[in-house]
Amino acid sequence: MHLELSGLTKSFGSLVANDHIDLVIEPGEIHCLLGENGAGKSTLMNMLYGLLQPDSGEIVIDGRKVTITSPSDAIKHGIGMVHQHFMLVPVFTVAENIMLGRENTHPGGVLDRKKANALVSELSERYGFEVDPEALVEDIPVGVQQRVEIIKALTNDASVLILDEPTAVLTPAEIDELIAVMRQLKENGTSIVFITHKLKEVKAIADKITVIRRGKVVGQAEPSATEEQLAELMVGRAVDLVVDKEPAQPQDAVLQVTGLTVIDERGFTAVDNVDLEVRAGEILAVAGVQGNGQTELAEALLGLTPIAAGSIKLSGAELTGKSTRHRLDAGIGYVPEDRGHDGFVGSFTVAENLVLDLFRKAPFGNGLALNTDEIDKNAHARVEEFDIRTQGIDLTVSSLSGGNQQKVVLARELSRPLKLLVASQPTRGVDVGSIEFLHGRIVRERDQGTAVLIVSTELDEIAALADRVAVMYRGKVVGVVPADTPRDELGLMMAGASKTEAHDVAIENPTTLGTI
Amino acid sequence: MSTATATPPVAKPERSGLPSWAIQGLVSVSAIVLALLVGAILIIVGDDEVNAAVKYFGAAPMDTISAAFSAVGEAYQALAVGAIGGITPISESLTQATPLICGGLAVSLAFRTGLFNIGAQGQLIMGAILAGYVGFAWHLPPVLHLIVAIVAGLIGGAIWGGMVGLLKARTGAHEVIVTIMLNYVAIYLLQWLLTTSTFQRPGRADPISPIVDANAQYPQFGDTRLHVGFLLALVAAVFVWWLLNKSTIGFELRAVGANADASKTAGMSVGRAYVVAMVVAGALAGLAGTQQVLGTDLPLTDGVAASVGFDAITVALLGRGTPLGTVLAGLLFGALNAGGLQMQLITQTPLTLTTVLQATIVLFVAAPALVRSIFRFLPKDRGAGAILAKGWNG
Amino acid sequence: MSDVTVQDTVPAAAPAAIEAPADRVRRLRVGGLMLVFALIGLGLAIFTKGGEATFQLVSGDLQNNLLGLPAQPVALLLGALGVLAAVAYVLRRVPQKYSGWLAIVLGVCFIGAFLCWAAAGKTFPLANQFQGTLNFATPLILGALAGVLCERAGVINIAIEGQFLVGAFTAAVVASTTGSAVAALIAAAVSGVLMALLLAVFSIKYLVNQVVLGVVLVVFATGITGFLFDQFLQEDAAKLNTPDVLSAVKIPGLGDIPFIGPILFNQTALVYLTYIAVAVVTFVLFQTRWGLRVRAVGEHPKAADTVGIRVKRVRYSAVLWAGVLAGLGGAFFTVGYAGSFTKEMTAGNGFIALAALIMGRWHPIGAMVAALFFGFATQLQSQLQIIQTPIPGELLLMAPYLATIIAVAGLVGRVRAPKADGEPYVTE
Amino acid sequence: ACGSKPTESGSTGGSDNKAFKACMVSDSGGFDDKSFNQTSYKGLQDAVKAKGLTEVKAESKSDNDYPTNMTAMVNAKCNVIISVGFKLEDATDDAATKNPDVKFAIVDSAPAKPIANVKPLGFNTAQSSFQAGYLAAAMSKSGKVGTFGGVKIPPVTIFMDGFAEGVKYYNKQKSKNVAVLGWDDVKQEGLFTGDFEDKAKGQNNAQNLITQGADIIFPVAGPAGLGGLQAAKASNGKVNAIWVDTDGCESAAEYCSVLLTSVKKGMDVAVQDAIVSVVDNKFDNSQFIGTLENGGTSLAPFHEFDSKIPAELKTELEQLKTDIVGGKITIESKAQPKAS
Ligand SMILES: Nc1ncnc2c1ncn2[C@@H]1O[C@H](COP(=O)(O)OP(=O)(O)OP(=O)(O)O)[C@@H](O)[C@H]1O
Ligand SMILES: Nc1ncnc2c1ncn2[C@@H]1O[C@H](COP(=O)(O)OP(=O)(O)OP(=O)(O)O)[C@@H](O)[C@H]1O
Ligand SMILES: [Mg+2]
Ligand SMILES: [Mg+2]
């Protein structure tokens, strides 16, 4: 299918998110869209899929102009989409999610669950995905959820498949699988629009690359371009992809975790007898596939999840039984993994969110009244310092793009003196320019003598930041390894292999991205 | 590889026209007009003379029409006169508005914390019970007596509201269920108390308490029924405004109301916020209770709450959960109540019509898009719309 | 790829041997409450008077079908059993999976012991207890089902009370004027749908906050039925407000089952409709295409939209079907049971139905159980007022409401509404 | 369907006193409460018709409205103002003291100290309820009769007291053992719906009484009490009922077939008399207490049961009346209005 977007424009209020965008997708090509956070990539794709209506411009399919006013129009035209944010119903089973909208039924509209299960099994077999059709989506790890999303898109036999940041939550091995699937589809003539912030992936798979900046197409690039060149095109300036980092100068242990065990809501052991230590002036990265207990570990450190056994000490003082507020006051900074859910209050202004855990104390509050002048002053300073792209400090945070929302959270947490910074996925979904900046800030925090604990599923990030790496699998720490451990080896440990096992296997079976 | 210069996002020109508050005002006025039209239809349908004239509509159609016009005209004239036609009507409207404002604030404040307080009725009753009891059973010096009685009322409401918050915080019990149930418990409690000699008027077996001491009554303005409680209602509105927008506690309440998870992550206690919000909300409803028993009713009866606790929900929602809005909505409802009494007196229009009018007004005010699709000249307001549009999950 | 990498997703971990702190808190809370009730039950048993407690097993002549039990021994036995159940619960003596049954055992024991205590030396009409439970619960079930349908689709329905009122009014008027029960039920359903249409249009199309809307529609319904009653029904009651009440029809076979037969299967058409409604709503919601879509738009409308489902259309259909149920529930108050219409005769039952639906966790069966629970408590207090117990009448009047609070706080705990419940769906 | 325009016709009946305003304020139950507001209002209408007066009425939505409505009536230049119910006591006394020229009457209440221009209208319905209890006891086949109330307040329990005492008297006279379910006049405990609106609840309460064996029901719960009549109707002749306040065969005609009789509380007559006394310049502030003697309370006709009630029983009921009036029978109920 030949797809042509011409002059597509979309504004939100006074913000022009897409400004006369032209784009051509040839049949059977993998077309990568690159751009900073908030550049307008998702907006463009949402218009193509009928979720947003363009203010002007047209969509032409195989020479015919079409109007797409709803996703069902898009589906009719052979367009499929995997959305940046999961479009899965958490309380439904995998099969229910996949059949939704195109249900096979017995007479009388009664669902044919057998057929749906069979379809899921068949697809997972065809593409080598492993999913249990009867599992509830909310119970499966995000990586598997992402597969469900992909299967959902594939069942439609789309001729154009849009993948909006599908790899953000996948392990290297899973990304490999996805890349294989994309190649397979391409061979069958499906065109793919692929959005990602990971330049390695772009280089590995793209046939064509289009770069968008601030709502406009700023250029095309060849897959042979270097990461630096791509980054520069995206951000509009030279980007340092490697964080400048002196070797760590670890001092006294700040965080000491012993025998920590957390049981989750469903009664499963999420964190299993974990011992960890983070020293002042070092960055310990916790690596692992999502869903292996890292989330619960971080939440336990902050007192958000009660612990079943073990002890957590901050500079020698026991934290168990203390409230979250106490821990924050004691000098822990926290960047939660799911920012939209836990990191900020969407309907609050940027200024308010920048003091979400600071508002009680001077200078922002005196225990009773808020000092709004100080709050605003603080907001201006942080917006400046962290280059938060907003039209004003009085705007709600929900109107910012994802990357900028993340900056708000980091700006807040880094704006007070810390002993320990716990940051989960600090740059998930963030563009390379922002990553450069955020990583720099985290390293600076380390150099000031803060103990830093990073939880990340992103091997790039781990490589860039970590002084030491602890790999978690099924709630246990399977090993603590030096930062320069090869990524394939880390990947294997994340899949449960021990340190030595991983070393041997990795040499025999290199992955695509591991070798780029 | 081609390059292009980065351009900043283009700002689209703002839609010129009226400020947001003016547009909202216009929409509200239009909504009231629409509601009055609906009411007019009901008046016509129910009017005996119109019905008599309709029977010979073919013979003398003008009779029907003029009867209809005069029926509607007389009714609404009476409504207007009863609401704002002079000092006494205005004082009556303000008197009626007083408990509605406080009750409305009780609902608003909880709303902003993500709680649906359907229990203002019960909280008001508990406030009235305690305030009334202190008012007629204790005998204290002037001023002090009133203050003590008011405080008792606040405590009564606060306990009843606080229980809801506490149960929600400790056990997760849904506040909608608990408040509905506590409303019943409160009214049965009041009915029972009024059969005891402690609460009954000496020498009487009727369920009516003695009149509260003069010292414990809200002083009245001149010889109107308007009393100092009205000023307290305004003070309460200012207090709630300050609490929500200018205080650290309010910051916490709003944060919990908007996103409980993020608030928890930022070190706030969701449970504490629920308790605080419901205690304050209960106290506000309790204040409404004191206004009933120490301001207008004077003896305590089982009708002390009337339907104030439920009307308060509508008032709060009409006021979009903001203190100023709640005050305005309370004044409107108070005026309609006062005018409605006058309307039934003069044109014998049933009070149920006032109820219909109030419901229709809120319906139209809450749906600006509908009003706009009828009155097409109204400008669009970007800011308006889904305020308080939240589900059960907070 | 090697065999090590294959398993790179996380299979569900094994259930933990250690109890999660949240579970522990819950166990102690529920267990504590259970212990309190168990001890109260035992206490009542100890103070039970000697002699027989007589239970009437079939409604009708009070001399027949009696079961006499030695009050105190039975009460003691039940009381002890209750304590056992509570202790077993607190000490985790049964597998977690079955621990819920302990609460049920305790509940039954407590009520049994309580009844022995209350009925010692008297006759307690047990069959009538269930009969009355069903009477009270029928409109609540229909109302709660209406709520379930709406809210599963993401539209909060506080207006059940208003739909009841309008349904009751219409049914009474139509039954009086046409003399046809079928016409009355249809009219009630239609009027319920009209109220639902208001709810749907204003919430789905005009994005009015749904809680506001519900409350306002109740006020509106109260006003309009009151106004029409004042202006018309009052003046011409003989013609407009003398509906015939549906008569009970015994289902052959089923109606002859001992004990439950006469209670469940000698009822009016409306009650049978209620049974059917529970089954149908449950089935439709969880086993059909439409049900799947309804639940999808109530949980994650955008996800439904992205697979080509017309979110608003599904919501409209759910809310309107709910109107049918709520209208029928309203009809119960007039043609289904109590005859002529009187002002505000639904007396807050719509709000109780709302509570039942939340208490039943937005599930048709749960809502039914909650409605039956409330009906049981209300009927029990009425019967106890008649047989005269040492419990003051005023406390008995409050009892159903207190019992609901205790049940919600103690046993039900935190409930989770459909994720998008109350949120209008807007596209740009 | 268009007729011709009717011509003006002069007012009919009675003398013409259009300038005389007879006014009434309801309590928060409203004029359609099928109970005392409604009956009192009928009295107002009767007086207006009989004397050709002008009628003004004001319904109260809440307790808050009483002073407002009273003031409005005074301002409307009413000549006589009737307030209905004990809740209006304070507002009435207040208005009366401030407006000595206007005459007032209050139903079901009495000022603590007599006020020159306020006439209290009380009703000793225990007396006729006593008869009703006797009748019910005599007519019961099962030996059990039942009653229930709306809310436990004296205007309600007075009926239940009288009823229960009547049954006891019957038992004593006839050495029978008819039981009263739903009210224990000694302990003052019994069966209540908790409100006056929930008709279905009233019906369930009645049904529970029926299950316990009652075959005559005496509901004292306003509109909720109608549910009791419905329960009787649904029993297909097995159960009958006695209505209160008004003659049920008139106010709730659809239930006439199950009504043995009704305990009439003659508020209409009392109100009418009070108004007429003002029109005729014969007003005095002495308390009126409706009794069997003055007809202020009575048993309504038996209507459809007239032929089924034995003549002998009718005679006994007449005798009861004589004995109560003559003081041979004293009724204990504490809810009876006390002469002030
Ligand atoms: N519904 C909306 N209302 C208002 N502004 C919006 C809305 N959706 C997107 N925007 C704004 O439009 C711009 C483009 O957003 P978009 O989601 O397309 O960015 P993106 O390129 O996908 O970024 P990311 O890489 O962070 O996903 C951002 O500034 C965003 O804040
Ligand atoms: N994310 C949420 N959304 C909605 N309600 C919530 C949320 N989190 C908590 N709650 C409600 O608040 C209650 C209390 O939450 P919180 O976590 O503060 O409990 P707690 O820690 O036991 O209380 P406290 O901190 O006062 O001791 C919970 O039982 C729940 O009903
Ligand atoms: Mg995006
Ligand atoms: Mg907490």
TrEMBL record, chain A:
GO terms assigned for molecular function: ATP binding; ATP hydrolysis activity
Gene3D superfamilies the UniProt entry points to: P-loop containing nucleotide triphosphate hydrolases
Cell membrane as UniProt keyword: yes
Pfam families: ABC_tran
Principal subcellular localisation of the protein: membrane
PANTHER family hit by this protein: CARBOHYDRATE TRANSPORT ATP-BINDING PROTEIN MG119-RELATED, GUANOSINE IMPORT ATP-BINDING PROTEIN NUPO
Keywords for this protein: ATP-binding, Cell membrane, Membrane, Nucleotide-binding, Repeat, Sugar transport, Translocase, Transport
Entry's localization field: Cell membrane
Name recorded for this polypeptide: ABC transporter ATP-binding protein
Classification via InterPro entries: AAA+_ATPase, ABC_carbohydrate_import_ATPase, ABC_transporter-like_ATP-bd, ABC_transporter-like_CS, P-loop_NTPase
Annotated ABC transporter domain residues: 3-239, 255-499
Highest taxon above the source species: Bacteria
Bilayer disposition of the protein: Peripheral membrane protein
Annotated GO CC locations: plasma membrane
Nucleotide-binding recorded as keyword: yes
SMART domains: AAA
TrEMBL record, chain B:
Major site of localization recorded for this protein: membrane
InterPro entries linked to this entry: ABC_transp_permease
Keyword Cytoplasm part of the UniProt annotation: no
Pfam families assigned to the protein according to its UniProt record, in alphabetical order: BPD_transp_2
Keyword Transmembrane appears in the UniProt entry: yes
Segments traversing the membrane: 21-45, 65-87, 93-111, 123-140, 146-167, 176-194, 226-244, 273-294, 326-345, 351-371
Membrane topology term: Multi-pass membrane protein
GO cellular component: plasma membrane
Keyword annotations from UniProtKB, A to Z: Cell membrane, Membrane, Sugar transport, Transmembrane, Transmembrane helix, Transport
Compartments, record wording: Cell membrane
GO terms for MF: transmembrane transporter activity
Coiled-coil ranges from the UniProt annotation: none
Protein name: ABC transporter permease
Species of the source: Kribbella sandramycini
TrEMBL record, chain C:
Keywords linked to the UniProt accession: Cell membrane, Membrane, Sugar transport, Transmembrane, Transmembrane helix, Transport
GO MF annotation terms: transmembrane transporter activity
Mode of membrane association: Multi-pass membrane protein
Compartment(s) of residence: Cell membrane
GO CC terms, sorted: plasma membrane
KW Transmembrane helix (keyword) present: yes
Transmembrane parts of this sequence: 28-47, 67-91, 98-120, 132-150, 155-175, 181-204, 211-229, 269-286, 318-339, 351-374, 395-415
Source organism superkingdom: Bacteria
Record InterPro entries: ABC_transp_permease
CDD domains, per the entry: TM_PBP1_transp_TpRbsC_like
Protein name: ABC transporter permease
UniProt source species: Kribbella sandramycini
Lineage: Bacteria, Bacillati, Actinomycetota, Actinomycetes, Propionibacteriales
